[in-house]
Each structure stands twice: as structure tokens, then as C-alpha cells.
Write a structure and sequence with these properties.
The chain is α/β, with parallel strands linked by helices. It contains 15 helices and 56 strands.
């Protein structure tokens, strides 16, 4: 209703001739879309200064005191726009000149917003020279183009158009000299909708151009300018003497070309602030005229941030050798930058390549022939960095980067999605790094060589500190945040993969930083290669050591070995002894459990003389499928009315999983005697023998109650008795066993093993170095009572173990290592064996005692105690004649010390476990445990919390961990007593 009254009032004013027709036609001023053009009589202009809108006129055309929307055409007579001239903000000058403000109605001093300025037309303001501070500040309704090109404006004071976010373009006058001053500016601060700021003479595509008359750009003048997606590049004219702090603080500004000429001694940049060129754009270029101008600003102004320093550059021309090829590039920036033809600006050419080399010198292993700029090699993607004013690139050699492949168990893989198939062997995954100058364990340190170190990261659930960072701090690096990276450099190029818990997929992954070092003629190592980390760590320096862009991240899928097994409970059923005419014994329940990790289908068994009935849910037509850990039940009951006799039998339960068949057996005992006959009770002894030998008698052997029975065990050719199990318990590798006074059922099982062909330590030469006579305990466990059979042996542990066995320890120390402290528990062992030439370091004077020793390294050390055999060879698929460890592996195989894996590999780069080491060293020493003695004295042996007799290496470890006296009988070691 009020809007309608105002409209009627305006019509009346028009009818009375109080308002020009043109003004009324411009709009009613009630909305921003229909602003009212303020007539000249509505403008307050005094002595050429425009102060604002007339209070008398405003109140006359707006008796309802509504918020109005205006447009203004600045008259030719105006020379100055006063402070706050286009706003309804109050000032003393405005009040003196009777200008409407936001709290000066007659009799009402309260704040009341009066109007919004929607459009300002400067096309007739030919006399305008000055726009004072805050003239249109925060006039967010201003839109379109702010065109000052028809004016003679020389000065635009602070915040004149600050916050005018609706403007889409600004055209500056050619007369402009000052945009604020050094300490106050913000003339266009916050004009976030701008597509350009330019001159009337600028090309249509120009985004940012300043007039040649400009001398001062005030503080934060262009802060937060330009709309999203705008790439603003500006040339600062040579005339500009003053630039205030953060004058160009807008992330939309990508290049600033500074045309002012610098002077190395008497600075020409004293008026430029140290943060003048701060923009927030990470790809910023600040391009000075030349080397002198660059260093004038760099040294005399001292830019305030590293971002500004890193963005600074200047053009230079590089001559390539003695050719006629010259290229203009930007110093301290990527060589890919190329000048945009006809402009002062630059762009990156991702397809850039260096000039082709011709007639280059001969190749050198490990080096690429390349262009050099001084001592720095040039690459197609590298950075230009020189202090020469007329640089010349020369042909030189550049050290090659390594070849890096993702790998599993030492074998290169096609991509970063790795799969590890678990079995009874150790497995690992990581990277395989090669280089023509790679220093191997037996490589020469003369001349020059390279070696590599690795920092491993477990990136798990959006964190760089995954479970393995905490569980394996000796192998995995971690971050404390704020740039605090706890890097662990190791020579391990593959990390152990032991179970599903080590699987990493999706956002969970492993990352490795690879460090490459070169050593030249015995000098200190120099870093020549570094792959970056892939995460953002607030406070860090963005990995300044990195020499390449590619980071090495990979996933691991762990496939467990399929296991098909079932178990019957109870292990046997005894239905007792009855007489003919008996009452049928009660049925007994058998539970079958799927103890494997694959599904199996169980068939209900049948057996003569017994009733077998399925019970519980899941059975269908005599079969049931069991998932892992699932169970099924059935009952077993002797048939009624059986004649006198022995009905002992073995119930066999069969399961099928894929193409695999599994069984579980349950011995059944049941005897029917003739009524009143006083028959003899008999018991069954079940005798069996594994592959490689025989037991006699065998099968189900009947023994009368209270009788004795002897069984003889005989190994086949090439086999020996490994163990004899009576009722599931070991009685040692005995050749016969007698059951006495039999009063229950029993089992006896003979186990055989292939006879090991191991060379005598006297023949190999080991007995000349190590104690093979006294069977001392040469290995011990950890303080927590564990032995750690499946832990990786460290290089320190390996040294101490061999030192324990060394016959002559009186050795002059001639070799030490920087990372082996004299007070370390392993120091004497390491220094002694190194001085004897048994141990080698890893390069740069280090031994890496805490690092897991590899299978190749351990084999090489072991063979240094022996004479090299003649004609040794190996058939391992991953051991080649060119490998530094080939002769050692071949020798150890020939002596019978080492074995490979089921897939035909040796895995030289994988770590070796303490159990595996123990087996090898026992063979070297000619030592082998007496299983019968172990069984008879089990309670007296050194025990470990993590080791039971069921572990494959239990006997081997008992040999190494228990001192004992011994005899040689029939080619076998027979223990006679334990020793301290």
C-alpha cells in the first residue's frame, strides 16, 4: 500500500512540474531492479565537489521515508567526489551541506538506512580528478561496469570502491596516478565479482592492466579481487614507485610483471613493501626485468614470506653449447615456462623437451648424457637455477635415477596392486630398486657406487600412523604432526607380510620413501634421488629433498593358504564288553568340526554292526555342508543281538571341499562275550608308519589283557627314524618299542624323514673357525621368556651368535662402524668378526645392527667360515650367476646347509627367521638333537614361552639352546647329559 502511495505522490509531483519527466521515467526507486535516476537538482555539488544527495529533495520525493534505490550520472562540473559521497553514511561535511544521511531526519537522530546506490555513470564527468575515501564503500548493489575512462581522475583514495562485490568490470582512466597510499589503500578490496580491471585502450581479452601514469598502489588495493575462475596477470608499470603491503592479495592473481628497473646498490624499490606481492596463489610468478632488479628487491626489501621468494624470477637467455640454439627461460622456475608470444606473460609447456644432443661423448654406466647449467643437470621438467647473466648449457653426464618396480618376495610385479599368497614360508612385499652402480654386499667401494635406503609408512584409516607404525617402530616411520616426521631409514626394500592383518586396500595402503645416495672415491655420501611422501603434513616444508614427483604407494591383498581339515570329538568311542543276550549299549554322540578355512561337505558315515544316525539341523539326505568352525553331530550305537566276538572298528568320516578330500577317524571298541564262558579280554593296539619306512606288526594288533607286545621300526633306504609317537606322545627316534601289561587300547605311529646329506664340518673347514666339539648353548631367548622362532634375526644377533661359537676371540680390532657404540651388547662381536673379514658393512661406514639380516647376507657370512667347494651351482629361479651372492648360495647348497622354497625360489632379499638360522647353523656344526633324550628329559630342558614341541623347529632350537655332552653312535648324535 505504501509503495502505491509513493507512486501516486510521484505522479502528482510530475503533474505539478516539480520533477523532470526523464527522471520519473528512469524508475520509481522502490526496488534495485527499477532505480530512480537522481536529477542534477537532487545532487549536492559545492565548488565542484559532489557531497551526496540533497536532504530537501530526498524528503520531498519520499515523504513515506522508504528505503530508496538510486542511479547517478556525475555531471561534468564535478571535480571531486567527497568522502562517502555515494553512500548515506553521515559526516560533518555532509551535514553542513544539507546532504541526506542515515540519521539526520529533522527531529530524528536515530540510524535509518535511506538509500542504496545501484548505478554510477561517469561518462559525463570529464572534469573529475579525485575520488575520496570510502566514496562507494560496500555499495553491494552497484553492478555492471565501473567506467572511469572519460574522467581525468588522478587519485582514488582508500576504500573508495571496497566491497563493491556486484561490479563485473572496471575501466581505469589513463590519468590515474594514485590508488590510496602505502599505508592505506583497499580501493578495490573485496570486489569479488570482477572479470577484469583494464583501460579503454586494452584488448577485449585483457584481464588486468594498469595505466602507465600510475605511481602509487596502496595497501590491499586489489585484495580479494576477481571472480572465481578468473586468471589475472598484471604488468606493474615502471612509473609505480610505491606499493603497499598485500596490495595484490588475491589468489586469482597468478603473474605479476614488475617493469621497474632495479639498482643493485642504490635501491629503486624502497617504496615497495616486503609483502607487496603476497597473493595466496601457490602457482604465482613475480617476474622482474632482469638479474639486477631481482636482487635489488630480494636483498634490499627482503620479501616477507618464502612463497614470495619462491615465486620471484626474471627472464634470461640460455645458449645451448656451441650450437645456434638460444631459449628464453625464467630463472629459479621450471624450465617448462615459455613466454606467451607478444606478451609479458608466461605459460607452462608440459610437452617441452630439451634440444636434442648430437655427437655426445661415450656412454658411462649409470649416467645419462645430458645438458648441464653450471653444476646442475637440466631435465625436461626440472628447474633453472643460475647466477650467470649469460648462461651457457654444456654437455655433461647426469647420474641416472634408479629403476623402481613394485615387488613380492623379490620378484617385480606389473603394478601397485600386490597379492601375497600365504603358505608355510615367509613372504614380503615392497619395491625392487636397481641401478647400474648399485653397491652389493660384495661390491667394490672403489671409484663410485650408489646405495638406497627406505622409509616405510603404514597409511591406515586416514592416518599416516597405522597399526604397524606402533607395532614395528624399528621398521615403520611415523608423524607427530606439525611437520614432526619421525623417519626410520632402513635398507629393507620389502616389508614382511605375515597374515590378513597386514593387508591394505582401499584408502589403506603402504607408502615408501626411497633415498638414493652416491659415494665418490670414498667421500661422504650425497643424496641424488628422493621420492616424495604422498600426504599433507601441516607444518612440514613440503618435502624439499624430493627429486622426483612420483611417490610409491601400493596395496596388498593377502590370500591365506586354503586349509581343508575336520576334527572328530571324542577321538574314540568305547562301548565296553558285554555278554551275548546283552542290552544294547547307549548311543554316543560324535561332533565333527570344520577346523579349516574353507567349506567342506560331510557325508554321514556307515559301518557294519553299528547304527549311525544324524542329529541336529542341517543334514540333507545324509550330507551337510560346514562353513569354517561350524559343527555337525551324529550318534553311534552298536547293533543289538550281535554274536560273541570282537567288534572293534575304525569309523571314517569323509569331507569334500573343492577337489580336496579330508577325513577324520574315530576308533570304536566293543566286545561281545559268550554268556558264562569266562572269555579272555583283548585290547587293540593300532600301529601305523608314515612314508619312508615300516612298523612290524602293523594295523590293528590284538593283545590279551595284561600281555606285552613289541613293535619294530625300520626306515627305508634314504630315510631315517624321525620320531615315534605312542598314544600321540613322542618317545624319541627309537627302533623298537614294547607295550607292557596292556590294559587298554593304544596307538603307535612311526615317523620318518629323508636322511640329510650334510657335509662334515672338518671337511668344510668350519671346525677350524667354530667350536664343533663342545655342544654349548649358542643361542638364547629374550628377557620376556620368548625365543621368537618366527621373528626376523637382526644383523646384531647374527654377529653375537657366531661370536659365541668362535674358537679364537683374541683378535685385534681393525674395523669399527659409526652406528655400533662401544657399549652396545653386540659391539665386541661385530668389531671382532668384521676385523676377521667375516662381516661387512652396508656402506658409508655403517653396519645397521638392528636391521633384519637378509637370506643372501646370512648365507654369505656363513660361507666365510668355510672353504669354497668346487663346481657349486644352484637351480633357484631367483639366483643368477651375475648376483654377488651366487657362489655363496651355490656353496651352501652343495654343503647341504640351506634349502629353498616350494616354488623354486631362494628369496635372497627376504629376511631370515631365527628358526631358519638355527637349522642352518646346526648343519654347519654337524649338530643334531637326540629326540629320545628330549622326550625323556623334557622337564629339564630350557623352555620358552612361545615354543612348543609341535613347532617344526623345536628339536633344532633345543639343540642350539641347551648345552650337553654327547657321543657319536651309529652315525647319530646321542646326548648323555645336560650341561649349564
Amino acid at each position: 500500500m505504501k509503495k502505491r502511495l509513493i507512486a501516486l505522490f510521484l505522479s502528482l509531483v510530475l503533474a505539478l512540474g516539480l520533477l523532470p519527466t526523464a527522471a520519473a521515467a528512469a524508475g520509481d526507486g522502490l526496488t534495485a531492479d527499477n532505480p530512480m535516476e537522481v536529477p542534477v537538482e537532487g545532487l549536492v555539488i559545492t565548488n565542484g565537489t559532489y557531497y551526496g544527495i540533497s536532504k530537501e529533495w530526498y524528503e520531498r520525493i519520499n515523504p513515506e521515508k522508504k528505503l530508496m534505490y538510486f542511479s547517478i550520472t556525475v555531471p561534468e562540473s564535478v571535480t571531486i567526489i567527497a568522502k562517502d559521497g555515494f553512500r548515506d553514511a553521515w559526516s560533518n561535511d555532509k551535514q553542513k551541506n544539507q546532504v541526506i544521511t542515515n540519521y539526520n531526519y529533522s527531529g530524528d537522530k536515530k540510524y535509518t538506512e535511506k538509500y542504496k546506490m545501484v548505478k554510477i555513470d561517469f561518462s559525463k564527468a570529464a572534469s573529475l580528478t579525485t575520488i575520496q575515501s570510502q566514496a562507494a564503500m560496500s555499495c553491494t548493489y552497484l553492478s555492471g561496469i565501473l567506467d572511469l575512462s572519460k574522467t581525468k581522475v588522478e587519485t582514488i583514495e582508500k576504500s573508495a570502491f571496497s566491497g563493491c562485490s556486484g561490479l563485473t568490470g572496471v575501466i581505469l582512466p589513463d590519468t590515474l596516478k594514485s590508488l590510496g597510499n602505502q599505508d592505506s589503500g583497499s580501493a578495490f578490496n573485496g570486489c569479488s565479482g570482477l572479470q577484469y580491471i583494464r583501460l579503454s585502450s586494452s584488448d577485449d581479452g585483457t584481464v588486468f592492466e594498469l595505466p602507465a601514469s600510475l605511481t602509487c598502489i596502496g595497501r590491499q588495493t586489489f585484495r580479494n579481487c576477481f571472480a572465481d575462475g578468473v586468471d589475472a596477470r598484471v604488468v606493474i608499470p615502471a612509473s609505480v614507485e610505491t606499493i603497499g603491503s598485500e596490495a595484490f592479495y588475491s589468489s586469482r592473481i597468478s603473474q605479476i610483471v614488475v617493469k621497474r628497473q632495479g639498482d643493485g646498490w642504490d635501491s629503486n624499490f624502497t617504496g615497495y613493501g616486503d609483502s607487496a606481492f603476497k597473493t595466496g596463489n601457490s602457482n604465482l610468478l613475480i617476474i622482474f626485468r632482469d638479474n639486477t632488479s631481482y636482487w635489488d628487491y630480494r636483498l634490499n626489501v627482503q620479501p616477507g614470506t618464502s612463497a614470495i621468494r619462491n615465486a620471484m624470477t626474471y627472464p634470461l637467455t640460455i645458449q645451448f653449447g656451441d650450437t645456434d640454439i638460444e631459449q628464453e627461460k625464467l630463472n629459479y622456475q621450471s624450465i617448462q615456462y615459455t613466454r606467451i608470444e607478444g606478451t609479458e606473460f608466461w605459460e607452462k609447456d608440459a610437452a617441452y623437451i630439451l634440444p636434442t644432443l648430437e655427437n655426445t661423448p661415450a656412454e658411462r654406466p649409470g649416467y645419462d648424457v645430458s645438458w648441464m647449467l653450471g653444476s646442475i643437470p637440466l631435465t625436461d621438467t626440472g628447474k633453472i637455477e643460475t647466477k650467470l647473466t649469460t648462461p651457457k648449457a654444456t654437455v655433461s653426464y647426469a647420474l641416472q635415477n634408479p629403476t623402481v618396480d613394485y615387488s613380492v618376495d623379490g620378484k617385480a610385479q606389473e603394478n601397485s596392486s600386490l597379492t601375497v599368497q600365504l603358505d608355510d614360508q615367509a613372504h614380503s612385499a615392497g619395491v625392487k630398486v636397481s641401478h647400474p652402480l648399485l653397491l652389493e654386499e660384495q661390491g667394490s667401494e672403489e671409484g663410485e657406487y650408489v646405495y638406497f635406503r627406505y622409509c616405510w609408512w603404514d597409511e591406515y584409516e586416514q592416518s599416516t600412523n597405522g597399526p604397524r607404525s606402533e607395532e614395528e617402530p624399528e621398521l615403520f616411520s611415523s608423524s607427530e604432526g606439525s611437520g614432526m616426521l619421525n623417519r626410520v631409514q632402513t635398507s629393507v626394500s620389502e616389508i614382511p607380510i605375515e597374515g590378513k592383518e597386514d593387508e591394505r586396500n582401499g584408502s589403506n595402503q603402504y607408502m615408501v620413501e626411497i633415498y638414493g645416495y652416491i659415494v665418490k672415491n670414498g667421500a661422504d655420501p650425497e643424496l641424488f634421488y628422493k621420492s616424495p611422501y604422498n600426504f599433507i603434513d601441516i607444518g612440514s616444508d613440503n618435502d624439499p629433498e624430493a627429486t622426483v614427483l612420483n611417490s610409491y604407494v601400493f596395496h596388498v591383498t593377502v590370500k591365506e593358504a586354503p586349509v581343508y581339515t575336520i576334527k572328530a570329538d571324542p577321538a574314540e568311542l568305547d562301548f565296553g564288553s558285554v555278554q551275548t543276550g546283552y542290552t544294547q549299549p547307549a548311543a554316543q554322540t560324535v561332533t565333527i568340526t570344520n577346523t579349516g578355512n574353507q567349506s567342506v561337505t560331510i557325508t554321514l558315515p556307515t559301518l557294519t554292526n553299528y547304527d549311525i544316525v544324524a542329529t541336529g539341523d542341517g543334514w540333507t539326505e545324509g550330507s551337510i555342508t560346514l562353513a569354517p568352525n561350524a559343527t555337525a553331530t551324529f550318534t553311534v550305537q552298536p547293533n543289538a543281538g550281535l554274536a560273541a566276538g570282537n567288534y572293534d572298528a575304525t569309523l571314517t568320516v569323509t569331507g569334500i571341499g573343492g577337489t580336496n578330500t579330508v577325513t577324520a577317524t574315530v576308533p570304536l571298541t566293543f566286545t561281545v562275550q559268550s554268556g558264562g564262558s569266562g572269555g579272555v579280554t583283548r585290547y587293540t593296539i593300532t600301529a601305523s608308519a608314515g612314508e619312508g619306512g615300516a612298523i612290524s606288526p602293523s594295523g590293528s594288533v590284538q593283545v590279551v589283557r595284561g600281555g606285552d607286545k613289541t613293535f619294530t621300526i625300520t626306515p627305508g633306504e634314504g630315510y631315517e627314524i624321525a620320531d615315534v609317537l605312542v598314544d600321540g606322545e613322542s618317545v624319541g627316534a627309537v627302533s623298537s618299542y614294547t607295550f607292557e601289561n596292556v590294559r587298554t587300547r593304544h596307538t603307535i605311529e612311526a615317523v620318518f624323514a629323508e636322511t640329510e646329506t650334510v657335509a662334515d664340518p672338518d671337511d668344510t673347514g668350519v671346525s677350524g673357525w667354530l667350536n664343533t666339539i663342545d655342544h654349548m648353548a649358542y643361542l638364547a631367548g629374550y628377557p620376556d621368556g620368548a625365543f621368537g622362532p618366527d621373528r626376523n634375526m637382526t644383523r646384531a644377533e647374527a654377529a653375537q651368535m657366531f661370536y659365541n661359537l668362535l674358537l679364537d676371540k683374541d683378535v685385534t680390532t681393525t674395523v669399527t662402524f659409526a652406528d655400533v657404540d662401544d657399549g652396545a651388547w653386540y659391539a665386541e662381536a661385530v668389531h671382532t668378526l668384521a676385523s676377521l673379514g667375516i662381516l661387512n658393512g652396508v656402506g658409508d661406514g655403517r653396519y645397521e645392527p638392528e636391521r633384519a639380516i637378509t637370506r643372501a647376507e646370512f648365507t654369505a657370512i656363513a660361507m666365510r667360515f668355510a672353504k669354497a667347494p668346487a663346481g657349486g651351482e644352484t637351480c633357484f629361479t631367483d639366483v643368477h650367476e651375475s648376483d654377488w651372492f651366487y657362489a655363496d648360495v651355490a656353496g651352501a647348497v652343495q654343503y647341504g646347509w640351506i634349502e629353498g622354497y616350494g616354488d623354486g625360489t631362494f628369496r635372497p632379499g627376504s629376511s631370515i627367521t631365527r628358526a631358519e638360522v638355527t637349522a642352518i647353523v646346526n648343519r654347519m656344526l654337524g649338530r643334531r638333537a637326540d629326540t629320545a633324550f628330549l622326550a625323556a628329559h623334557a622337564e629339564d630342558l630350557t623352555a620358552f614361552t612361545d615354543l612348543t614341541s609341535r613347532h617344526w623347529a623345536w628339536e633344532t632350537i633345543m639343540e642350539a639352546a641347551n648345552g650337553h655332552t654327547w657321543d657319536k653312535r651309529g652315525g647319530a648324535e646321542v646326548w648323555t647329559a645336560l650341561t649349564p
